[in-house]
Amino acid sequence: MKVKNLQDTTLLNNGVKMPWLGLGVFKVEEGQELINAVKSAIKNGYRSIDTAAIYENEQGVGIGIREGIKEAGISREELFLTSKVWNADLGYESTIKAYETSLNKLGVEYLDLYLIHWPVEGKYKDAWRALETLYKTGRVKAIGVSNFNIHHLEDLFKEAEIKPMVNQVEYHPLLTQKELQSFCQNNGIQLEAWSPLMQGKLLDNPVLQEIANKYNKSIAQIILRWDLQNGVVTIPKSIKEHRIIENASIFDFELSKEDMEQIDQMNQNYRVGPDPDNFDF
């Protein structure tokens, strides 16, 4: 996958452009630290920010975006903003209401991508109908899902008028999800990685360290490069400016086929987050 710079995009199945690399803000608390992280990401060339209702930080993200846009001298249209509807709000009317709440907190007029956060059985189809309505009426640029396995997607397809454009899932060298990725590719759904660095648990891995030494890069940079070369959008989380810059410094090298395969072979189907099939919602 030839991704040349931080502003490079993938084309979603509806023609919308989505940046390959973005900033995640999972569990970052409201406050100046969050605002500064978002501003710093925008200042340093990031054009994608990912949040969610359950993170309870949409307000701070919104402030960071407004201040970041102003300081960087760019327009809102140049940013790709994602949020997600939480499990308690899944349902037709409640999802539309949750979308409005997210917009208000973020202080924006639209989202670029809105996702169903988890596949809560018996609820996600009504929520998907709401997302389709939001999309068809031009309220959101793209819609998708998060943490959906193949059987969830197949079930959704039975009634969906519109196929999801994105599926954001846990994805890292110990959870490569090859079958799911192949299914998504065959159905025109862009796979996106959350927790690409396995919440920091991979940053002292000896196999990855050996590869990192070869390229004179950090383990984080190797993993994020592996994501992109596998055709997976990725949103590493960081609140420190030097890390935000480091995470984006991955466009001046390319992993060899052998190193890509070596990382692929690390898979253990190991999750740091909940299993979508056994998650107590």
Task: Give a quick rundown of the structure.
The record marks 84 as: Lowers pKa of active site Tyr. With 281 residues, the chain is α/β, with parallel strands linked by helices.
Determine the fraction of residues in helical runs and give it as a percent range.
25-40%
Radius of gyration: 18 Å
Per DSSP E runs of 2 or more residues, the count of β-strands stands at 10
Low-confidence segments, ≥5 residues, pLDDT <50? none
Order of helices and strands: EEEHEHEHEHEHEHEHHEHH
- The outline comes out as globular
Which topology of the domain at 17-201 and 231-237 does CATH recognise? TIM Barrel
CATH homologous superfamily of the domain at 17-201 and 231-237 - what is it? Answer: NADP-dependent oxidoreductase domain
The top level CATH class name of the domain at 17-201 and 231-237: Alpha Beta
The average pLDDT is 96
Distance between the termini: 36 Å
Q: Output the strand order for the largest sheet.
A: 3-4-5-6-7-8-9-10
Strand content: 5-15%
Please report the number of helical segments: 10
CATH architecture of the domain at 17-201 and 231-237: Alpha-Beta Barrel
| Helix-strand makeup class | alpha/beta
- Seen as an oligomer or otherwise, the chain set is single chain
Q: Report on the biggest sheet.
A: 8 strands, parallel
How would you explain this protein's 3D organization?
With 281 residues, the protein is α/β, with parallel strands linked by helices. It has 10 helices and 10 strands. An 8-stranded parallel beta sheet has the order 3-4-5-6-7-8-9-10. The protein has a two-stranded antiparallel ribbon with strand order 1-2. The longest helix is centred in the N-terminal third of the chain and has 15 residues, at 58-72. Residues 28-267 form the NADP-dependent oxidoreductase domain. The active site is at residue 55. GO terms for molecular function: oxidoreductase activity, acting on the CH-OH group of donors, NAD or NADP as acceptor. Belongs to the aldo/keto reductase family.
